[in-house]
Amino acid sequence: MGKKQHPISGAPAVVARGRGGAAARAATAAALLVLVTACAGGGGGGDREASGPGGEKNGDGASRVADGPSRAVVTVAPEDGAGTAATSGALKVTADRGRLTTVTVKDGKGVEVKGRISADGGSWEPSHHLAGATRYKVHAVARDEEGRESAKDTSFTTLSPKNTFIGHYTPEDRSTVGVGMPVSLNFTRGITDPDAVERAITVTSVPSVPIEGHWFGNDRLDFRPEKYWAPGTKVTVKLNLDGVQGRPGVYGKQAKTISFTIGRSQVSTVDAKTKRMKVVRDGKQIKDIPITAGAPATTTYNGQMVISEKYKVTRMNGATVGFGGEYDIKDVPHAMRLSTSGTFLHGNYWASSGTFGSANVSHGCVGLSDVRGGWNKKSPAAWFYDRSILGDVVIVKNSKDKQIAPSNGLNGWNMSWAQWKK
């Protein structure tokens, strides 16, 4: 026999010769098997793996989840199948003896409800209220300390409100308006939880500016920036009122997004003392128009006013604004509303031409020279009407009257920014 080194261990290997070679080769193979097993198994533990965080590890260091059911328990409220769940405060997902890793809540259209898992992984809550009369599906997964997962799938339906409210909004969707136009919402029911309602409304702009809301009473909410909008600004309003409880037992039913664009800047200043109006377009004066303002006994409000309505022709009856039967004109041309209480800037065909620029004779409105029927496009009233849009600003100064109330029309600009944000 001769000697050779074993290819693995380096031990001497016996080379069999002759008739006894087969037995020797078998013994050598058995020895090799033992050596290979010892190298791979680590002390005879080839069927065991070193344990580590979150489970065990196999021979190459990869994690393997421990056998057996997960100890994590997922709980979802409202309970599965609930049919009259509250839209706020009812939905909550929790995990016991484990941490939540996934929570998905979707409505029947596949729209996901935003929410967040707590820092300790013990709970999840939605970031906003749910819609009314809507079925939601919940899928939640939690993991225990050994890395084993437990899942729960449930569904529930929110209550169907018997009493609802909506907000009538200004301006109209996709409209182009002047730099003074606020976002104004008038609710069909008085709101006793204004914070909940305001949280459900977002107003954003491009370019971005700070925008704040202000309540006038319990049924009107306006939004505006600190200063007039910049021309060309794009404004988006999201009404997520569906399911908001605005007052006990009364829920919003509105889910809508509207947008509008700010056009060119036009700010016109009426001086009741000089009886003239200067029209400034994009920072440049384009017209100086003679006017007539309120007579000494029926003066015009001072302040910043926003054009909220336009009528080619309208009826003005003194009885509707506290002046009894003093006037009833059925065909007032080129009328633009400046206040809820009845202040207009309008065409006047019944006063003599010499009145404009020399005397104040109106019942509180601002009058511009016009013709009956409004057919003359060159009249001052027609000229101004054709070049004005909703949201344009008209400022009245030097009138012997008080400043207009911010709630009287779309006239919140008469409040300072600090007052507005209160």
UniProtKB/TrEMBL annotation:
GO terms for cellular component: extracellular region. It holds the Pfam family YkuD. CDD domains: LDT_IgD_like_2 (cd13432), YkuD_like (cd16913). GO terms for biological process: cell wall organization; peptidoglycan-protein cross-linking; regulation of cell shape. The active site is at residues 346, 365. GO terms for molecular function: acyltransferase activity; peptidoglycan L,D-transpeptidase activity. Residues 266-397 form the L,D-TPase catalytic domain. Keywords: Acyltransferase, Cell membrane, Cell shape, Cell wall biogenesis/degradation, Lipoprotein, Membrane, Palmitate, Peptidoglycan synthesis, Signal, Transferase. Pathway: Cell wall biogenesis; peptidoglycan biosynthesis; Glycan biosynthesis. Gene3D superfamilies: 2.60.40.3710, 2.60.40.3780, L,D-transpeptidase catalytic domain-like. Residues 43-69 are annotated as: Disordered. Coiled coil: none annotated. This is Lipoprotein. It comes from Streptomyces inusitatus. The lineage of its organism: Bacteria, Bacillati, Actinomycetota, Actinomycetes, Kitasatosporales.
